[in-house]
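Page 37, continued from 36.
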């Protein structure tokens, strides 16, 4: 297809009857809060999606066995030997509370200067309606589908996909066989290339806590009494070197190293580097990795131990001379293939005991394993080659993203080749204020999915 300008894409979108119909569906979806963390609106939004897909001609199943209903919508091809594409999406969002700045109400879809704004327009409700639009356009303009298309939509992705594993086990036989699974979302990079990624890092989050006395103690005893705060800080410091390398025995022994193709893809397409991050975030501290190859290998293919938050002692106005009796830290480790959350949790506990920090209580909070796709799989290569026709700057193919999601869980259940791409932009502000998507990118995604369906004819 000829590359269209942003103005031409927006005009095509506004003139497209089907796209406009499902844009109104998106408007309703945005207005309906569906937040697992707050237990808000999950059943209502699942029911609305079920009704929407049923009206579009899909065979719909809504399973409400667990806290977040699981929605399956199947569009069947009349071809007896038709392959199957699965779209994985989620209808839950993170909150949009008073701690974030929004220009307009986050649960009212607004359009300004070629962009749509609202909680979930990118992560992930906008992807649901864009992909449904593509299916409906194919059916209306061309006819019967040449491929079976199945949407699976969960409602707890933003809370570690609670119970998704159980739903997948229950419906595995109804979802398979499948040729390809397209992940929830993706973005363009700063060069305008569509990022096509094949995996993500896993994660384990855990709390550390220390209680050193019944009450806070006068700090005149600081020379002879250990405080909870110092004890915890020393325990945390024992787990990571100054250069960021994790010092917990057994962590790197289990890491599955990237192959040559994965290293080549990252070297060719990855844009992140220490200088760009310094400018983006106005960094005041030195980078842990400056050499580009070392930076990329560490960023994409190695685990990382981070402190999410620390709390101990007096934080009020003025001075309070105490030795705090309690200290707490929220911690996380980003995982790569070979590391399971439970394995890492046991190694953390063993490390602290072995180094004399047995007074630190370690509490497991959540965990997800990591996954990397085979980016040379024919079904994935088909998408990559097709996408190059829709983005003038081309595509950026990465074997994994540095973020986290339930890709490993889904792959273990279905064993289907997976990749992620979507309609986001470098400043879509997922999870932040003024989450947004360009109307041109939204419509391009619709057309790309429609053309992907055509490749199965």
């Amino acid at each position: 297809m000829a590359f269209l300008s942003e103005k031409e894409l927006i005009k095509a979108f506004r003139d497209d009857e089907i796209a406009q119909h499902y844009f109104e569906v998106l408007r309703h979806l945005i207005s309906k809060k569906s937040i697992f963390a707050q237990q808000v609106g999950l059943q209502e939004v699942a029911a609305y999606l079920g009704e929407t897909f049923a009206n579009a001609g899909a065979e719909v199943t809504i399973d409400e066995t667990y806290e977040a209903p699981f929605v399956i919508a199947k569009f069947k091809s009349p071809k007896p030997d038709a392959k199957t594409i699965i779209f994985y999406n989620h209808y839950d969002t993170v909150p949009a509370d008073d701690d974030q700045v929004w220009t307009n109400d986050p649960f009212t879809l607004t359009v300004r200067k070629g962009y749509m704004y609202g909680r979930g327009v990118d992560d992930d409700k906008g992807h649901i309606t864009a992909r449904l639009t593509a299916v409906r356009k194919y059916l209306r303009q061309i006819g019967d589908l040449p491929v079976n298309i199945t949407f699976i939509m969960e409602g707890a992705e933003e809370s570690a996909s609670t119970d998704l594993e159980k739903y997948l086990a229950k419906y595995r036989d109804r979802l398979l066989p499948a040729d390809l699974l397209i992940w929830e979302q993706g973005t363009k990079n700063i060069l305008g290339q569509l990022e096509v990624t094949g995996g993500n890092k896993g994660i384990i989050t855990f709390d550390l806590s220390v209680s050193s006395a019944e009450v806070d103690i006068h700090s005149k005893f600081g020379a002879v009494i250990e405080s909870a705060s110092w004890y915890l800080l020393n325990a945390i410091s024992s787990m990571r070197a100054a250069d960021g390398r994790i010092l917990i025995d057994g962590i790197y022994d289990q890491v599955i190293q990237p192959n040559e193709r994965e290293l080549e893809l990252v070297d060719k397409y990855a844009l992140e580097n220490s200088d760009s991050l310094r400018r983006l975030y106005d960094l005041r501290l030195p980078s842990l990795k400056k050499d580009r190859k070392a930076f990329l290998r560490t960023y994409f293919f190695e685990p990382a131990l981070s402190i999410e938050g620390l709390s101990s002692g007096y934080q009020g106005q003025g001075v309070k001379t105490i030795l705090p009796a309690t200290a707490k830290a929220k911690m996380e480790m980003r995982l790569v293939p070979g590391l399971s959350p439970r394995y890492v949790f046991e190694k953390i506990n063993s490390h602290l005991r072995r180094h004399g920090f047995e007074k630190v209580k370690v509490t497991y909070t959540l965990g997800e394993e990591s996954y990397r796709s085979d980016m040379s799989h024919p079904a994935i290569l088909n998408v990559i080659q097709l996408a190059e026709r829709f983005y003038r700057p081309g595509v950026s193919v990465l074997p994994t993203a540095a973020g986290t999601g339930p890709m490993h869980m889904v792959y273990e259940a279905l064993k289907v080749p997976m990749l992620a791409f979507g309609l986001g932009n470098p400043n879509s502000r997922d999870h932040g204020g003024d989450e947004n998507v360009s109307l041109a990118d939204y419509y391009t995604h619709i057309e790309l999915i429609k053309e992907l369906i055509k490749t199965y004819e």
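The radius of gyration is 24 Å. Flag for discussion at group meeting. DSSP finds 13 helices and 19 strands in the chain.
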